[in-house]
Amino acid sequence: MQVVFSIGILAACMCVYSLLGKAFCIKYRFCPTVPEQFCIGFFLYFAAFQIVAEAMILTKQRLHVLGAVWMAVLAAGIAAAAVIVRLDKRRASGGRNEGLSGLAASTGTRLLFALMAAAVLCECATAVLMQRNIGWDFAYYIGNMTTSAATDTMYLYDGSSGLLRSHLELRYALSSFYMNTAWISQATGISALVLQKYVAGVLCVLLTNAVVYSFAMEAFHRDLRKTAVLVTITILLTIFWDVYDTAAQFLLLRNYEAKAYCANVVLPMTGYLLYRLWKNSGEKHNWAELFLVAFASVAVSMSSLVLVPALICLMLLAQMIVERRWDGALIRRGILCMMPNVCYLVVYLAFTRGWLVVEV
Question: What values do phi and psi take at 271, rounded to 5?
Fold first, then answer.
């Protein structure tokens, strides 16, 4: 029964992300594909959740307080997004999103999309049913969430031993990813293990393919056939290329972990946006989207702390080398996108040096 309820929660999450992403695109006046809107909504959700959750975590509030406050904030955000979308529909006659129906797809294109959809479902089934990683990380992360839900606290108890910590471990507490599952588990009564395996695991697969789809549509100039073929091939390679030390294996074996989201969603999405900025650095909505992804990256995974700024720095450096000039506007916008991660890095370094200790 908990699995059935988890499927309902997954569907609700997908609807919320899609709505938030669509409202974001309307406000910034650009028309991405539906999968890209879905990804934008995911990052927008965690950007907002991080603001609320970190304030609660660092002040050692109860988990149920976070859940209550966040549900109120989320309800207000959903209502605002719904109003934005509704007003936009009144102003426009439709056709904002370019998809299969909007381009008078042929029978062959529809068949390719059906095969792509079947491949996505197979990958979801593979990632969930063949999940076989039961190592220390699995026990620790699930332990953090179940302990938080049981004790009505956040990161105050060690996830492996269950003992009360002497201080907050900011290596984990600076990211709110697992507390999102914890508050849902506490509010619904569904095990955090079930939620993480079925909801977070499947969601990671869907987001990964949404990024690949968005990248392919951009690279192939919105050619639906080529996009469907590339996504399908990517999925087949992921399933059959059974090598552990790859991002793909994080997708199949450890999809419930924040690391998997970093490897398969955050970093590819950052690379996709940098590719778009490389082609046209003057588009403000591309910078807005990159800032959103960077802002939410630490909330999704602490592994993004240095990796996302590193990618942005590489793009800025490569742009200057190729163009052989100093572009002040490009540098300023790139630095602005990196600032959230830089601030987190300063806090984390202060913690590792012992200058910042939040005692329990």
Answer: -60, -40
62 CB-contact burial (10 Å; exposed 0-12 / middle 13-18 / buried 19+)? middle
Tens of pLDDT, residues 204-230: 999 999 999 999 999 999 999 999 999
Distance CA 157, CA 146 (A): 10
For residues 203 and 173, what is the distance between their CA atoms, to the nearest angstrom? 22
Please, are residues 120 and 235 in contact by the beta-carbon 8 Å criterion?
yes
User: 285 and 29 in contact (C-beta within 8 Å)?
Assistant: yes
Rounded CA-CA distance 1/43 in Å is: 29
pLDDT average, residue stretch 162-181: 92
- Quickly tell me which residue has 């179940």 as its tokens: 146
| pTM of this structure | 0.93
**What pLDDT, on a 0 to 100 scale, did the predictor assign at position 179?**
96
CA 227 vs CA 136, 151, 247, 261: distances in Å: 38, 47, 21, 22
d(CA 350, CA 344): 10
